[in-house]
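ingest -> fold -> write
write: protein_1
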Amino acid sequence: MQILREKFKGAIVGAALGDAVGKNVEDVVQEEVYEFYGGRIEGFVPPHPSSPAYGQLPEETSDETTIMRILLESVISKKGIDVKDFLNRLILWYEDETSHRYPDPTLLRAIDLLSRGINPASHGLISNSVEGILRSVVVGLYHYYNPDLAAEGSKLVSLLTHRGQAIADGSAVLGASISYLVLEEFDLIDFNERIRFLNTLKRFVGERKFERVIDLVQDLLYEQADLDMAIRNIGNGSYVFEALPLALFIFLSNIGSPIEGFWWAVNSYGDFGGDTDAVGFIVGALTGAYFGESVFPRNLVEELENSELYEDLAQKLYDITENMIIRR
């Protein structure tokens, strides 16, 4: 179906767009953003000198999108989720340092240990960075027909390199979210359906403290909180249960104006700086999965580095998924 194809493209391209735009102001405080750009950013701008992306081109993505692409290529090649193949591709990427774009040091350390047959957890390598769950977007699409499978598969690929309960729960929530949004299980124009959506996501969470964060998202929706209030209450750092719930809040607060939500996400730096590329990545993926690729301004998509590649990979993933469903 054409609508499903557009949703697959929307999720992948939206994630890459959020990463590419958001990386330019990552870790930069609002005062410096406004002083440098004259206000919030709305499109591709040169990376701020204080951002770790400084030196990249405006339209380039970070390695958060690279890891998603590697998993996409693995699933397409193997016509399914093959953790061993995914790891082998990660090792090849790890060894090619010239292609790196300020990757997460914990990710590099985990891949190094795994390449030598060592369990990262045995070396005390525990990470709760949101970077570890972003690849779940691919699994959510691959298993879009079954949110439970999407959640379990997302945990599998995320826990490969990032060990911790927050990673397990966060990846399950993100993978299931993508599945539900592609299926349109919830009519999110209806506020009560947004609350039901969040309540449904809580069943994928293993620890009560993470459930409480989703409860906080609901409270902020009821209060019609703005972005600043959400950042103050949830946080906007790289910790899984800051970036992920903030992204859910932003997405659900802007169902009637999804591109405004996208701009909220890539400008979610607040007074102390934030993980704007990860928040942008998640909101872009959620928005694209629900509304389809056409929700994003076409000029923005065309300017994105490798946009045609992402569209092609999304198309191939859709074809593989549909063929798998037919065979079942």
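write: protein_2
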Amino acid sequence: MPYFAPLTWASTPSLDDMDELTEDVIDFLSEGTRTAKLGYVAADGRPLVAPVWFIVEGNQLVFNTGKQAAKGRALSRDPRVVVCVDDQHPPFSFVQVQGIAATSEDPDELLDTATRIAARYVGADRAEQYGRRNGVPGELVVRITPTKVIAGFNVAD
């Protein structure tokens, strides 16, 4: 049986617990093209995780998904979610957002958010193309309002 040495920290990482997105959390979430990992509950109660492209809008995380996709169906049953975004490079950081998801099928909002999300991940030159492709009937705008936010910045320092 392999032996795993206990995990020790050179110093205790700072984990901040809050219920809204602070400026430093928004900056972290908005940096580059980090993909969020969305946790949600399947119809049979299994926990599921899926990657999502997202943007921060005010105090909410916003992404698109298909209404009939697993995520869309799950959120219509149970809007409780968790999102984790991390920086996998030393000194390592992460933000976890627990919250409630609300969905919209408004066509103008859908096209707008799909285009802005695309601009973040594929660039401004292709944003309109991706926005038109993803901002269509059958898709949802999902807005997560935080109920709890946990942030750990520079945890290896």
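write: annotation protein_2
The longest strand covers residues 139-152.
The two ends are 31 Å apart (CA to CA).
pipeline exit 0
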